[in-house]
Amino acid sequence: MEGKQFHYFAGDHTAKGFYPLYESNFQGLDRLIRLTGTSGYMKSDLLQKIAALGEAKGHEMEIIHSSSDNNALDGVILPSLKLGMYNGDVYGGAGEEFNLDKALEQEVLQDQEDAILSLKEKMESEYLSAHASFATGLHIHDGLEEIYINQMDFSKADQTANELIDRFFGDTKALEKKSTVKHRYFGASTPEGVVDYIPNLTEELHKRYFIKGRAGTGKSTLLKKMASAAEELGLDVEVYHCGFDPESLDMIIVRELSFCIFDSTDPHEYFPETSRDEIIDLYLKTVTPGTDEKYATAIMELNRSYKSYMKEGIRTLQEANSLNKELETMYAEAMDQAKFAALFDSLKKELD
Asked: Are strands 249-254 and 237-241 parallel, antiparallel or unpaired?
């Protein structure tokens, strides 16, 4: 496991707004550093430098990506050192403050004060528009779910869940420790579209289960039951929320038993590649045969409509990112490179 990097998101632009899940990922750390300051790029740049140092020294790392900018980071965790560092703009929680504004020439920024304020207001408006588009898409998606919910045999769904729980955990004795549960996203809506890190997060697991099905066929409910069963046994669980509706789940990983089970449908659809991969099809197990065919026209229209709002949301994230790049250009012009390098060196010495 030495040198392994796990990539994920801990905050996402969703149908419920920007939805942060950072806190649970900082469990068990002896030291947590909260990067503050005006420039997001400066914080991301420092995080990338720390990640590069960790990689050079062969440390296992957790790399937390930004859903607002595909080229930026929100955090870095080095579990072996019990050390974490994160962007204090996306999560205003605990940690020692490390302020990067010391590297900015404030008199330069004062001349740009009105332009900076205007850009921030426009960015906030674009993010709100993106969230509204995703919310409308989710409302339409609820109509799609209703078609399948009305055709489901819930007793078969419960039976399937109980059989899987017994299969996965039946031979596992309860551990004499409390379960550690970490909440995060394997994917997110970003300015470059939907991005996920499923292959990275699951590549070393002995078994991967791909849940197939349709909207509303109980994929998230099954995952919640699986997560609860693992937690009751004292097993550590990585719980991955849906980047569209964060109150739903898309995957759980139980590394102590070396398996994952995840929603393998669009927009994160995968298919078995090796003997370690297995499909669990909830549509075949729980839904009245012929439902797809019977409601084909309505399903097609609902799919088309909700996806159009998803695309609109992505487009507005792109607009927000463009505005942010304009803003960061101003901060770059006010940055003293020597002072920034000195800040990084001081932090590096502390960590050493």
From this structure: antiparallel
Cα distances (Å, whole numbers) of residue 61 to 78, 120, 296:
5, 32, 46
Number of other CB atoms surrounding residue 124 within 10 Å: 12
Confidence of residue 2 (pLDDT cuts 50, 70, 90): low
pTM of the model: 0.97
Question: Omega into 267 within 30° of 0, i.e. cis?
Answer: yes
Residue type for position 31: R
Q: Measured between alpha carbons, how far is 192 from 275 in angstroms, rounded to an integer? A: 33
Task: State both tokens at 188.
Answer: 């997110």
- At 42-76, the pLDDT tens digits run 999 999 999 999 999 999 999 999 999 999 999 99
Quick check: 73 and 7 in contact, CB under 8 A? no
Strands 207-212 and 83-87 come out as: unpaired
Please provide the average confidence, as pLDDT, over all residues in the chain.
Answer: 96
Cβ 22 vs Cβ 90: under 8 Å? yes
